[in-house]
Structures
1.
Amino acid sequence: MAKTICITNQKGGVGKTTTTYALGLGLRKKGYKVLIVDLDPQGNLSFSVGAETEESITIYEVLKGEYNAEEAIQHTPIIDIVPSNIVLSGVDLEFTYTGREFLLREALSNVQNIYDYIIVDTPPSLNILTVNAFALSNKIIIPMIADIFSLQGIAQLYETIDRVKRYCNPSINIEGILLTRYNKRVILSSEIKGTAEMIAKELNTTVFNTHIRSSISIQEAQTKQENLYEYAPRNSAVMDYMQFVEELLSRGI
Ligand SMILES: Nc1ncnc2c1ncn2[C@@H]1O[C@H](COP(=O)(O)OP(=O)(O)OP(=O)(O)O)[C@@H](O)[C@H]1O
Ligand SMILES: [Mg+2]
């Protein structure tokens, strides 16, 4: 059975997609079989790994039950992905039936035995897509950038996860908060780190030891649709992501 990890935070631009991409590629570099799933209608993750999203089967058709997950998986040169596109944005209104929280879990049940890890990128909102990701996942990772607005909305996120734990998926667990785009020299960053630690305590979790530093190479690798560990292996932020992979593995994930 694959270990299922969901990268989430309803705040936009905190590094969810980047973390999904970097974690997926990092685990793959370690020799694991990894599937990443783009559950965001923006399709940023699909773009980052060079997936085709216009003509192909996407997660939308899979959730609708029109195709199975195997048919939607694209084997790009850098990773396996189930892509997404803007059509996915209608599902909150479209999927109104009972059991709609479990569509992703059901859809991926056939590929759970093929992979060691399934990692899901979520949209910047708390909607039925996010709940589907929670209903599937064993572990939640919350990326957060070092700015004060990142702290807002965390209570709401916790409440949603808590409800999912009660009604949909008792095995879900918040593994930790990952500080991204971190800049040690900015005083605010270290203040936020303190606040993040307080929040983590409230969420019954911890802030990961590894912080991801800010670096333009991250964005460049994604824009060029390349593997960041090959694009800039010695870059500080890329090394941080590899360190993060090690930290997760050392926790037995
Ligand atoms: N460590 C980093 N250093 C520099 N830039 C970064 C870093 N991490 C992410 N970025 C850039 O910041 C932007 C936002 O990151 P990303 O898309 O991963 O956030 P997100 O939470 O997925 O956003 P959204 O909520 O819109 O889905 C992207 O352009 C990305 O390339
Ligand atoms: Mg994103």
2.
Amino acid sequence: MIPTAFDYQKASTVDEAIAALTDGDVKILAGGHSLLPALKLRLNQPSKLVNIAGIEELKGIKEEDGEIVIGAATTYHDIVKNDIIKSKLSFFSDSASRIGDVQVRNHGTIGGSLAHADPSADWTALVLAADAAIEVKGKNGKRRIKATEFFTGLFSTALEEGEIITAVRIPSPAEGTKTAYQKFPQPASRFAMVGCAVLRKPDGVTNIAFTGVSDNAFRDAAAEQAVAGKPLDDATIEAAANAAAEGVSILSDHYAAADYRKHLAKVYLKKVLHAVA
Ligand SMILES: Cc1cc2nc3c(=O)[nH]c(=O)nc-3n(C[C@H](O)[C@H](O)[C@H](O)COP(=O)(O)OP(=O)(O)OC[C@H]3O[C@@H](n4cnc5c(N)ncnc54)[C@H](O)[C@@H]3O)c2cc1C
């Protein structure tokens, strides 16, 4: 399959990339692992691609003002190797090491995955459980969008026309915070048929997020309430599993019917809660 013809620009700064977005039907190119297949299938037919993969200010991981900041063009490989992430957000590095294959991990970027908002992506659940904010920039400047407000539907986000994701900002977890992510992977792609991410704070406040279950990843308030502040014994974990994914419109496709996905959501919630107990 061959994409339709497009112009190509390699941006070296964020502002250059933002300026290029006003040139017509322009798409940002980061790792290309989702965009290039879409171009080849002609699902997207942009007039121009702006490559942001080489923009230094979009890469890297640092701690700043009580937050862990991951540049949007940071690759999964760089996240896996990073010491801050390994020590403070180990579910990010563990999960990133299991996304796709080596090529996907070497080129795929956290910003690209979040912007794409695939209903089965891993990063969506991870940033939700981590209470992240997505930092975006457009011609009117920067703004932050809470992860809980970022994913708005199937492949849809709160990004506005002309904006790019610049970073993911995560509150530095308090000492003693535990995290886990588990997924039932699609056997070929390793995408999550169902994935569940949990972050449990020392005071027992627990963030629980699902991917693969519905049109977009979401925090499960009922499951969170079932475990908040309580010891994670078998009865509490069972109560959370019973509450999981209730009232949610569940995806059904040739990989998994809705009732099976709901069953997987409960099973994977139990797995992650046992992991942080
Ligand atoms: C074989 C294979 C297996 C995979 N397995 C998994 C898996 O197990 N789990 C998983 O989660 N994903 C998986 N993926 C998807 C992979 O993670 C993609 O890399 C990711 O979805 C997109 O990131 P990217 O950097 O490649 O973005 P691109 O493909 O370059 O871009 C994707 C979309 O985001 C937009 N975009 C990119 N960066 C930005 C930005 N900073 N701001 C605004 N818009 C932006 C682009 O315009 C485009 O619309 C797999 C992909 C492949 C090919």
